[in-house]
Design a protein that fits this description.
The chain is α+β, with helices and mostly antiparallel strands. It is 31% helix and 27% strand.
């Protein structure tokens, strides 16, 4: 070969080129080994054949093939057919071959192309998008008819082109191409503004029985003149990503919504509210009846015959599933069923397809309800916490076409664990609440003492467990000396055993202080000191138990009514003021200073006095009675309105207030104490004033004897004369000034002697050789009760004797007063 036919690359590139020699007619005269390696044809097969027989003729209007006039000493792209018939793109160089007889032939140099034709790239990209891409591609014309689509996309895989090309997109996939999507595509056609990441759920043609979620993006197609040709839509299946995010949102939502209270039923309802419409179409929650009562079941599996209580049930309106048992109803499960099996091994059950011919035969009631609602899939999950089973939750699907899967079971398993912890906390609180309630009821008065000062009635409404407030109230009607009566209502801040114990201490102390005939402000002052001491004693325990420390504050209203003088004296410590409903219908709160709550220490309490007409209604209550109203003043006004009405009896008035104020379950214990004032008639009281002179002792005895005769109580004359004689003699001996003697015919015969000395007598046990000291001992033997109370001008020594044939001093009351 001469230099002229070494090829375009010179000596260096000649080795990588295939040389073919042609005669003047284009017939191959020499076929090199490089040509054989490039195209696969052997030399013996090609010599004598025209090279044009290997050319791949271009399609009409297409590119490729041999040029009409191959350039000499110039290159061009030529597509030749190899030995297997496939096209091979080559670079073609042609130049004269100078042989011994002159340039009577041609040398053609062929080299495999190093890069693809740009048109090939375009075709390859288009082919891949329409046949291999995992992203759905749909090309629609201006009438939104399907023109092209990606046959490899998940939503269209297996769909034949001839069945859908040319049809409206709405007909091809009606659940995905909704009115909203159609409107969006038409907006893109008209405005040219693309849409990106439009989320649309639906059932694609390739999987019409399972809902998928697609992220749709679309843009307009135009020709060279800028006119719209249609819309191209890209669809990415984001079902798994969306469901994963939805599961995370569900778990986060559940952590904030489930277990917000210590109410067992409410906790179960919170699970149902969280799950229905997101995981299941219906949910039923059953709790062991023993757990419902606050008891702790034995660890381990639960026997099949155990009794459950339906605690919550919730279903979407579209599901149509009706509960087999009403909420609060007790029931047991048929055996064997997924519920009993679940509780036998404490493992959840996933029933992807409900089979009517198997376990449903053992639970016919549930089976009937499930068939009626066309339930096709269900899950049963045990509710277990801290090693014990508390109940079971059942999840149903009827409207949702997809069956439950393992991911759903995992999710509800986590929700069940969280719910079970809330249920166990509620169970523990219920147990403590029940025990505290039993103790509280034992510490509250079971009888209203009989007395004539007031006609009393009360209502005590316990708050349900887990309420936002749960103070422990107490109330009392305490007979005092001189026919007076003390009315007490208080509230200990806190809950649990310690609050109940504190309430019991305060009530016992109130009785003791009332027996000393202290004034209302003095009683509150002593109770305040007691609360301070209790708080100091409880600090070490509170530090170790911050959730249930010793209560440190309480409120109290203490009122004393005297039926002889018709005087009411009130003092209060941070408690609502008593309401006074006069017989004429006027109702107003007592203008008693509020005072600090008990436990503040140091600040004084003040009393407030007023005269009341006979038949006035005194109302003492806890804050829970009026706190349910958005405006507490409005709650007080509503109570006043009820009290202003005429009621046949105090019990009727008490019920009327409760009915008006408590429209539903109350979170806080509520106490209402009503007392209608009475007045002792003038002929029931006899009073005399004497000078401090020993001569008046006989006169006092005579007047007392005469008064007893008028009352028909001559049987008590002897003992009464002894009492009057002893008390008047002591007053003359130890007290200056005048002496007052008063007899009161009430439920007992009351004898009072008042003098100007503040020194209180005390009972002694004299020796046989002592000349005095036996007067009070004698009085203690002749009377039921006796005592001393201090007055503004001195003291009063009083005694009480039972009337002949008079019944006991107390009558039983029902739990509601």
């Amino acid at each position: 070969m001469t230099t002229s036919d070494k090829g375009p690359g010179g000596e260096a590139s000649a080795a990588s080129q295939a040389r073919v020699l042609l005669d003047a007619d284009g017939v191959i005269t020499d076929w090199s080994t490089e040509a054989e390696a490039l195209l696969g044809h052997r030399s013996g097969e090609m010599v004598g054949r025209p090279l044009s027989s290997l050319l791949v003729r271009p399609e009409p209007g297409g590119e490729g093939g041999a040029p009409q006039a191959p350039p000499v000493n110039g290159g061009c792209r030529v597509r030749l057919r190899d030995r297997s018939g496939l096209p091979v793109d080559t670079e073609w160089w042609m130049c004269p071959h100078i042989g011994p007889e002159g340039p009577a032939s041609w040398a053609v140099f062929l080299t495999a192309t190093r890069g693809a034709d740009p048109g090939d790239f375009d075709r390859a990209v288009l082919d891949a998008l329409l046949t291999e891409s995992p992203i759905g591609l749909h090309v629609l014309d201006t009438d939104l008819r399907l023109v092209r689509f990606n046959t490899a996309s998940p939503g269209m895989r297996g769909v034949r082109a001839k069945d859908v090309i040319g049809r409206p997109a709405r007909e091809v996939s009606p659940t995905l191409v909704t009115d909203t999507v159609e409107h969006l595509l038409r907006q893109i056609l008209s405005s040219g503004e693309p849409a990106i990441d439009f989320v649309q759920p639906g059932y694609p043609p390739a999987d019409p029985h399972r809902e998928h979620i697609f992220s749709l993006s679309a843009f307009r197609l135009r020709n060279r003149a800028g006119e719209p040709l249609g819309v191209a839509s890209l669809a990415i299946d984001v079902t798994e990503r969306y469901r994963y995010r939805a599961r995370l949102e569900l778990l986060n939502d559940a952590s904030m919504r489930i277990g917000t209270t210590l109410d067992l039923a409410r906790t179960a309802e919170e699970l149902a509210e969280t799950v229905v419409g997101r995981v299941a179409d219906a949910v039923g929650v059953d709790v062991l009846d023993s757990v419902y009562r606050g008891e702790a079941p034995e660890p381990g599996p639960v026997p099949a015959e155990v009794t459950f209580r339906r605690t919550a049930f919730r279903a979407t309106e579209a599901s149509g599933l009706q509960p087999a048992y009403a909420t609060g109803e007790k029931a047991s499960y048929g055996f064997p069923t997924p519920l009993t099996q679940c509780l036998a091994d404490l493992r959840p059950r996933l029933i992807q397809r409900v089979d009517d011919d198997t376990w449903l035969a053992h639970d016919p009631l549930r089976a009937d309800r499930m068939r009626a609602a066309r339930v096709h899939s269900m899950m049963v999950v045990p509710l277990a916490a801290r090693g014990v089973v508390l109940g079971v939750a059942s999840f149903y699907r009827s409207v949702t076409s997809d069956a439950f899967d393992e991911d759903d079971l995992t999710i509800v398993g986590e929700l069940a664990t969280h719910t079970a912890l809330g249920l166990d906390n509620a169970r523990r609180y219920t147990r403590e609440h029940t025990a505290a309630l039993v103790l509280q009821n034992s510490l509250l008065p079971g009888r209203i003492p009989a007395q004539n000062a007031v006609d009393a009635a009360f209502s005590y409404v316990p708050g349900h467990a887990g309420g936002p407030w749960h103070d422990v109230p107490w109330y009392d009607v305490i007979p005092l000396s001189g026919a007076r009566t003390a009315l007490v209502v208080g509230d200990v801040a806190g809950h649990g055993m310690r609050a109940v114990a504190t309430m019991g201490r305060l009530r016992a102390s109130t009785h003791s202080l009332a027996a000393l005939d202290l004034t209302p402000d003095e009683v509150l002052a002593h109770l305040d000191d007691l609360m301070v001491r209790l708080a100091e004693e409880g600090r070490p325990a509170a530090a170790n138990d911050p959730l249930d420390g010793q209560p440190t504050t309480a409120t109290c209203a203490y009122a004393v009514y005297d039926p002889v003088s018709r005087r009411l004296v009130v003092a209060r410590a941070g408690h609502p003021a008593p309401l006074l409903a006069h017989p004429d219908g006027h109702v107003a709160p007592a203008d008693a200073p509020a005072g600090p709550p008990l436990g503040g220490g140091g600040l004084p309490f003040e009393t407030w006095e007023t005269l009341l007409p006979e038949g006035t209604l005194i109302a003492l209550y806890t804050e829970g009675l009026v706190r349910r109203s958005p405006d507490e003043d409005a709650g007080v006004a509503r109570v006043q309105h009820v009290l202003a009405q005429q009621h046949a009896c105090v019990r009727e008035a008490c019920d009327a207030v409760i009915y008006a104020q408590l429209s539903g379950r109350t979170a806080q214990d509520v106490v209402l104490l009503l007392a209608r004032t009475g007045v002792l008639r003038d002929d029931q009281v006899a009073s005399w004033t004497f000078p401090s002179d020993p001569a008046i002792v006989a006169t006092a005895r005579t007047l007392a004897d005469r008064q007893l005769t008028n009352w028909g109580l001559s049987e008590l004359a002897f003992t009464t004369e002894l009492i009057v004689s002893e008390l008047v003699t002591n007053a003359i001996r130890y007290a200056p000034g005048t002496i007052q003697v008063r007899l009161i015919q009430d439920r007992t015969l009351i004898c009072e002697v008042t003098d100007g000395s503040s020194a209180a007598p005390h009972l002694r046990h004299p020796r046989t050789t002592d000349e005095g000291g036996r007067g009070l001992l004698l009085i203690a033997q002749l009377t039921d009760r006796w005592g001393t109370r201090h007055t503004r001008r001195g003291k009063t020594i009083w005694t009480e004797q039972p009337l002949p044939g008079h019944p006991g001093d107390a009558v039983p009351v029902t739990p509601d007063g």
